């Protein structure tokens, strides 16, 4: 049995961040945050590039016995993309996390569709048996608590979270996590410029201790999306004009809707008659959700919604498998998005041989998929049964992914005004550049841990302490009124009881706790070379102190001892050496400062008396 | 190695060695390592290196680069790769000759380069060493190269992955000592793993050395790294050496139990109770520790808790426990949840303490639930404060319900049942219960109902059940109308399970039919949430199988008039989502199997109607389920598949309802054959696989068919074959037409079904997953625009 070290351990609560995914990569996001004793998991993503256990985060580093519910206070999902939520059913139903999972309402609605879609592909294509089931997805979704934007949600008495608009996809949110006076903001993926169907990310000046931000385009200033959209429409239009067919492989939700709106408006404007199809029954449901969550889309869509619902498409029709063989031009949206199985791959195989046709890949494809192969320029593909498929159709790549670019990230940091920043979801080299820029411009520390590395933030926890009125009055009576912003020393007794802290006068503390007072005195012996008698010695000490400490009350008592406030000084002869006199100095804790000052002074010796 | 791969490899190595070329993402390098691992495991690494000199070139080239030019990814990959090769001793010697290994793993290598600050590089370095430390030369190398020292310091690495891997490797070489380890926690972790692996004599020696150090740690307050110390002690105790020997281990554990904080003591106590051999006194102490929080709860809320004996002599511990429970809400919640989970884990184990205080545990679970829902009456000020801390706490509720559910097993007395059922009803009724709490309450209720002891006969539900059921159905009714889909769904799942087990019992039927539950379930077939619709379909299917759909004759329900079968067919043809449609076909399959009355009325019409809808469905799981329905139908008409095992008991043959040609003609007319052939060429593999099995079954059943002549070279057969070929090529628009039985048989024989079966058994991405595909992709990616690489979703 291999026993890895565990991330969660006992000790002083501090703010610690541990990316197990998204640390210097864009694979799968899963970040653990420990803040003031509370442990939160930010996203629970899956790596699409692996087909084995490596696709899920290794949760054994968190705890061995599988009872994650005891360790984690909650899981927060930023948005519905699988690299942010794909491991959720595995985590909750197979590893056994039983606590709450927070996400926004649209994410809650859409997440199970994508998980189900992915499960079906995995089981269909690879025949994977050890994969989560539909029932598990459902049971996992039952653990979800949906939140509204800007609604403060109490996870428990101490931990609260709040969602902000992120504009990356429908329902994407940034989350503020707060325990007492400490807070962390996690951006998830976000976009600072509004696009055709979503608005821009926004957060208030919440001044968190730490901002954990994505950094996909850390060094890029992206051209306007308008250009890419124009380009896309031009390509589609040209292809259908010359009688070709256009295949657009998409995942059921997200990019698909954006492109549908784009084509629908273009077809309307140009009065085109070429059919556009969407290949699965999912459109209906997807569009239903876009309608349902209209408040999450951008202003333009919301405004026009009154006149015409943007998601009720006139030109886009449901696809039937037989249509693929129809002659003449058409545009088809088909799932899945990486051309790795199912409908999209089947249509691709039919159309690939004709150079008039075109396939447009609107998103990222992982290695091994047909999508990845054709994007990297491969034109002869080996298919099952030793068949070779020659790709003559045109292959186009268009990135429509909605992430903040370098400017946008800086803008968000400026908006939130964090005490420190931590970069995730990006490449190491680009992160390094951005890190320096952030540190220079905002004068805050910026971290970029790799996967597995823990960042511990110095925290100064503030603990509220109640002060009794009696003590305050007593202090006021002693001196001037307190000045604002100027610290003043106050003596009292701190009582910790029922997990609250109170500062009271020592008298009151004694009374409350039923204790008797003990007097504690500090004593010190100062040895001085002096042959004179003790009484004479004491007198000399008296006059020396009288002249040095003009502001204090110095007294020479009848028994020969000298006092300065509560400090008592007595002179005595040395038991063995008559040439040495011993000064016994004693004081109470209230006069500690003065006491040590006096001993230091006396140790220097007494001034020579003028003979 | 495949010749195609050998051909591609030099180009790839050249790309990897060239710092100016962007390399594909980490996953590709990982997969490449996977492949090399398979290759070296299957054959000689030395031969591999000799046949592909580019590999050694790559390793030496990486060392020759200026340290600042090295890509951390490629460096890490090279380190792992070198280790993989050096795992075989002859290959190790070969690489050593060129000083390659020393260059890569020695002090002058990457250890001293700037790239060392990248965790991936450190991790690759450890992985490489871990692979090569397989043989004496490898271990020797580890000692001489100074690697062990570096490993010791890597145990405290900032990356948990690196630190963990370093510890694992240290454990592997067993060259460690307590003093050398940089931190107590890490040292303890290493030791824990070591004890888990080493042989008995070693364990004794190690423990002898270690016990004074552990004793020393136990003197500190608070105990440092308590969590790791618990793991260590348990790991030592698991060794069979200590089963009889007395070497202070048990005393140490007893001492530790008494001085750890309640939360930490819980996991130690659980560990002790799970041990195979352990002194009885320690077990009792551990069990007391584990029970203490519950005892405190019972003391604070009732007068006389549980049996005496268990709860005496707990005064010292219990005051600490009370302090913890009352110190803060989160401490109280944390400790209770942990205790409940520990006891839940212990409950089903054979080595759980005996006697097992079932009654006390049930009482405690009930009280905790009452504290949570506010119905408990505290008998002391502590009780009052517990009420405050636990009121409305769904986390504790969830844990307590899980625990209460497991306690249903082995319950011997019925004494507590009224209390249990009462608290479950309270929870199910309470408007404050969250959806998750309700789900767990339903599950616990189900367990208690199903585990009811029935002494006289299995038909007797016991005296409590009828009473309880009468109160349960109104609650279930209310929950079926909940605004949360989660709650409606959990209620339907509960109903389905309960009906499946109890559908035949008179008391249950009476209570169910007296309620609105069947009507509401019917209404939920039109729920806006697809999950709920699917669960409603399953529930209605179950109710109907037991003759409990009830409301059939009531006027004013037009949907009822057309019958449930009509409603389900409507869902199958119209529902926009897969779950309800899948559920319908599953219910239909069950009905067909059990000869449900509605189906038996006209089975052929039923099968034909269902198939017509299923064949059009876009969801492959619906189509696959449709094939299952066909299989059941075929078994009913043609008999069970022939046993392939010569020793199998031969079942009595089902006689087909008529002569075989007639049966086959019916199958063709019902479009079953058309459906199965189409499914064989389905683009979704599981559908094709199922269809293939089905056709094989059909071929087998018709093989010795006597009454049929195969047509010779009739043109009809040729056209059938031509159609099938077109279907295979993906053009499925043309129908098969009405087949004659003879044509069907000919078509069945002409297809290479075994070949299909073999191909379909392979996962459909085996081509993409092949090493050639990986190498091609990596080479092709080099030339592509950077934007593609950087992009993501």
TrEMBL record, chain A:
The encoding gene: INTS11
SUPFAM superfamilies listed in its UniProt record: Metallo-hydrolase/oxidoreductase
Keywords: Cytoplasm, Hydrolase, Metal-binding, Nucleus, Zinc
Segments forming domain Beta-Casp: 256-374
GO molecular function terms attached to this record: hydrolase activity; metal ion binding; RNA endonuclease activity
An annotated GO BP: RNA polymerase II transcription initiation surveillance
Main location class: cytoplasm
Domain Metallo-beta-lactamase: from-to ranges: 27-244
Upper classification of the organism: Eukaryota, Metazoa, Chordata, Craniata, Vertebrata
Protein name (record): Integrator complex subunit 11
Family: Belongs to the metallo-beta-lactamase superfamily. RNA-metabolizing metallo-beta-lactamase-like family. INTS11 subfamily.
UniProt KW Flavoprotein keyword: no
Keyword Cytoplasm: yes
Co-factor(s): Zn(2+)
Cellular localisation: Cytoplasm; Nucleus
GO CC entries: cytosol; INTAC complex; integrator complex; nucleoplasm
Subunit organization: Component of the Integrator complex, composed of core subunits INTS1, INTS2, INTS3, INTS4, INTS5, INTS6, INTS7, INTS8, INTS9/RC74, INTS10, INTS11/CPSF3L, INTS12, INTS13, INTS14 and INTS15. The core complex associates with protein phosphatase 2A subunits PPP2CA and PPP2R1A, to form the Integrator-PP2A (INTAC) complex. INTS11 is part of the RNA endonuclease subcomplex, composed of INTS4, INTS9, INTS11 and inositol hexakisphosphate (InsP6). Interacts with WDR73; interaction is required for the assembly of the RNA endonuclease subcomplex in the cytoplasm.
One Pfam family hit: Beta-Casp
From TrEMBL, chain B:
Pfam family, one: HEAT
GO terms classed as biological process: cell population proliferation; DNA damage response
Record key words, sorted: Cytoplasm, Repeat
The keyword Repeat belongs to this UniProt entry's keyword annotation: yes
Keyword Cytoplasm applies: yes
GO cellular component: cytoplasm; nucleus
InterPro entries the record matches: ARM-like, ARM-type_fold, BRAT1, HEAT
Compartment(s) of residence: Cytoplasm
Family: Belongs to the BRAT1 family.
Alphabetized PANTHER family for the sequence: BRCA1-ASSOCIATED ATM ACTIVATOR 1
Protein name: BRCA1 associated ATM activator 1
Species, as recorded: Cavia porcellus
UniProt gene name: BRAT1
